[in-house]
Each structure stands twice: as C-alpha cells, then as structure tokens.
Specification:
The structure holds two protein chains of two kinds. By secondary structure, chain A is an alpha/beta fold. Chain A is built from seven helices and eleven strands. In chain B, the strands form two sheets. In chain B, strands 1, 2, 3, 4, 5, 8, 10, 11, 12, 13 and 14 form an eleven-stranded mixed sheet that branches. A three-stranded mixed sheet of chain B has the order 7-6-9, with no helix packed on it. The chains are: A alpha/beta, B alpha/beta.
C-alpha cells in the first residue's frame, strides 16, 4: 500500500544534503512551508541553494530567515529579495550586504515558468520579460515575429517544500485561497517534493474534480504546525485613515 | 505637494478603466485606483499571486485572512465569481495578453516610454517582482507616480538612469501635476491638474513636453 505520510517534519527532511537545491513555496504571508523550514534549520546541512519568491515570509513566524541566520544558504534565487521599504532590513538583506549569500534575481513570471518548465520536461523557453534590462546579461536573445525574447532555462531542484491545505496518503493536494501561488509548480519541479499540510484526509475524501496537485508529483506528506503569528501587511490606502493610523501601520509593513 | 493628492491621482486613473476590463494594480498609488471605480462599472481585478475578482481591502482585523491577500500582502475580500490559480497561470494571463490594463508605480519614465520602477540605485538591491512580466502582454500600461523625486529631481526624463523595468512600454503617465501620453513623437501633455499651468509642468520635467492647443484641465 502506498503511504507517503511521514510522522514528523524532521523525518521528512532528514535526507536533505549539503549543497542541495531547495524550492520553497509562498507569496506574501501565504503558503510558506514554515514547519519544514524549521525542521531543515535543525539539520546540519550547508551550502544550500534556495529558490523562492521572496527573501522573507511577511510574518512574525520563523521563515527562511532561520536558514540564513544559521548560514545554511549559499545562494538565493528570488524575485522579491528585500522589503520594499528600505527602512525594514530583513535577515536576507543583512546577509546579502555582508557578502554571506549570493543572489540571482528573476522576474516573477519567469521564475514561475522556469519552475513549471522543469516539472514539464521543457529545458528552456523564450520570454519577452527582461529584454533591455539587467536580466538579459549573458542570455541568448532571439527575434520572433519582429520582437525580441530571452532564452530562459528550466529551474530544477533536489527538494521542493510546499504548503498545502489538505493532503492524502497518496500525495494528492488541495490548497487554500492565495496560499496556492508557487506551490503546485514547485511540487512538479523537484526530485523529492515534501508537502506540509494543515490536515491529512483519507484517500477518496478529496473530490477528484478539485485536486490541484496530483499525487504523482508528491513524495512525502506531513502535518504542519499551526502558524498563528500575525502577518505584517503593507498599507497604501491613506485615503480612509488618519495620519497616525497610517504611521502605525507603516511600522508593521513587510513588503513595503 | 502641489496639484493632486495620491488619492486623486488614483481617481483620475480610475476614469480610464472601462466596464469589463481585466486590470492589474501594482503596489502604492495603483492599489487605491480600486476605491474610485463607479458602481455601474464592472472591473475584474487580477492579483499576480493568483486571484481574479478580489474585492475591497479588509479593514476589520477579525476578518483578515493571511491566506487571502493581494500581491502587496494586503488582506482582501472576494467578489462573486472570484477564482484562484497558480503563479504560472497568473503570468500566462499577463504575458499572454489577457490583461487589458496594468497600473504600475514608477521611479522614472523616459520620453520613449521606458520604465524604471524596481530599484533605487543607491540602495544597491531591489525587488523586480512581477513588473518586468506585467508590461510584456501588449496591454495598456499606465504609470501612477508623483511628478518629481522627493528631492525635487524630475521623474519624467529624456533617458532613464535607474535600472530599467522595460523599454518603450508606457502608454500613459498620471502624476500629481499632469496626464501625459507617450507617443512616437514624445510626451504629450494632455491635461494639467487644477491650478497648474503647462509651464509649471515643463519646469519640473526633464523631457520636452508636447503641448497641444486643446490641452485640458483634469476633470476629477
């Protein structure tokens, strides 16, 4: 009988090795595999390459800053590495400025498509995003129908840590609201995909019409801890608020 | 600030959106555009983290859901007909030309419609986010920004000196002082904010402005 359920996050990440490439789902405060990240931070592995949307999870919870604090990350591939407001200096920004971690910046849509391509067995593709910018450095440029495109390569990983809402012992996953984001794509692109879920359900409980990640893409499923830390959100809607409220909110802003 | 407040910049841009448009709003002034859509105009807002038809920002902390946020990490609500999708589908909508209008913030816009909006060089690091993809779909690109930098330097320039987001993609710029169209001939000053003269606008604009004879005051 197939059973991909692991009893603990530590057991689920135990074979992550030095120099591994790891994808981490999440966008804004939603869909970060925080339990798995924390388990990884307890493991004595280094020189990791981390692929994620952003350099911090926009919450007070422990995010990939844990891995950075423990100097486990050698290289980061991000689209949104630092807080939008320069007054908020994240762990990643500190480590980057100290020269402790390399950064490859990727446009968001290109990041998503590079991950999708890896999962779908497509080795590279042409996209117009980044033409005429620093992103085109060292990349093949080609004209199709009179327009320039950049060659972008698939992005593979040894492990993908994804966060889903419900999963079953086969590895079928459904997500909740905007916590879906990069998770279903990363689930396809890694040799070993480990899903952290809010709830494990019986096989057959998930409606086949609504399964987002088919079990074939998932190797391990583990129940995540509840992360109830308040998230920090940006606020640009000055029109409805007093100045003092705005200032209060500004101090809590994560992305901006 | 002379001219329009940030809210009024957003209100002017809201008037550009038509019933049935699929629209992506960036972080900053663009987010506020949603507040000024008339009730009889149905716009479907796209958030690049994977939502179509999100609704107003949630004000009540009890009702906020950290898994229901827009791309600026603000808590949002959903309108009937909303849906979720993953990041690759989200950017298929963008690059594939399915979005009608995107409204972005800007740091500099050149007279050729080049856009720089992701990094202030002095900071040494910046966030590209979805902006580079957002302007590739052939959709109308509206930039919302204050007319000058905080230190008074022009943002509408002959050539961008900040790292570019994309070349030749901006269609319209709305600032606290002016509504400007980017044309093959250059920047056309179509409207000025109430109480602002075309000369006032040119004085704080590095690029040469084309001032048509039928220039209007903004109707807000």
């Amino acid at each position: 009988m197939i059973n991909k359920i692991y009893s603990s996050p530590d057991e689920a990440v135990a074979d992550v090795f030095d120099g591994a490439t790891i994808m981490l789902g999440g966008f804004g405060p939603a869909g970060h595999p925080l339990t798995l990240i924390e388990a990884l931070s307890r493991l004595d592995v280094r020189n990791l390459t981390v692929i994620a949307n952003q350099g911090h999870a926009s919450t007070d919870a422990k995010d990939l800053s844990l891995l950075l604090e423990r100097r486990q990350v050698k290289k980061a591939i991000f689209t949104f590495p630092v807080a939008a407001r320069k007054s908020r200096v994240t762990t990643f920004e500190r480590k980057y400025r100290a020269g402790e971690v390399e950064l490859e910046l990727v446009p968001q849509g290109t990041l998503a498509e590079r991950i999708r391509a890896a999962g779908a067995g497509i080795s590279a593709f042409y996209t117009p995003a980044g033409v005429g910018t620093i992103i085109e450095a060292g990349k093949e440029k080609r004209v199709f129908n009179g327009r320039e495109y950049l060659l972008e390569h698939a992005l593979y990983a040894d492990f993908a840590f994804v966060k889903a809402h419900k999963g079953d012992r086969l590895g079928n996953l459904v997500y909740r609201k905007a916590a879906r984001n990069f998770n279903p794509l990363m689930a396809m692109a890694a040799r070993v995909t480990i899903a952290e879920v809010d709830e494990i359900v019986d096989v057959g409980d998930l409606d086949p019409e609504i399964i987002i990640t088919p079990s074939i893409f998932v190797k391990r499923v583990v129940t995540g801890e509840k992360h109830s830390a308040p998230w920090l959100y940006s606020d640009h809607r000055g029109s409805l608020r007093s100045e003092s409220n705005l200032r209060k909110r500004d101090r809590r802003s994560p992305l901006c | 600030m002379l001219g329009l407040t940030r809210e009024l910049i957003a209100a002017r841009i809201a008037r550009e959106l038509k019933d049935g448009d699929y629209v992506n709003l960036g972080i900053g002034i663009p987010t506020m555009v949603a507040d000024f859509i008339p009730n009889d105009v149905e716009i479907v807002f796209h958030s690049e983290n994977g939502i179509l038809k999100y609704g107003p920002i949630v004000e009540d902390p009890e009702k906020m859901d950290a898994e229901l946020v827009n791309a600026g990490a603000q808590p949002v609500s959903l309108l009937p007909g909303a849906c979720f999708f993953h990041q690759a589908d989200s950017f298929a909508m963008v690059r594939g030309g399915h979005i009608d209008v995107c409204v972005l913030g800007g740091l500099q816009v050149s007279e050729l419609g080049d856009l720089a909006n992701w990094m202030i060089p002095e900071r040494g690091v910046g966030n590209i986010g979805g902006a580079m993809d957002m302007v590739t779909g052939g959709n109308r690109v509206i930039v919302a920004m204050e007319h000058t930098q905080p230190n008074g330097e022009p943002r509408l320039v002959r050539e961008c000196t900040y790292p570019l987001t994309a070349k030749g993609v901006v269609n319209t710029v709305v600032t606290n002082l002016a509504y400007i169209e980017v044309t093959p001939q250059g920047l056309v000053l179509k409207e000025v904010a109430p109480g602002v003269s075309p000369e006032d606008v040119q004085k704080v604009t590095e690029a040469r402005l084309i001032i048509p004879t039928d220039i209007k005051e903004m109707n807000l």
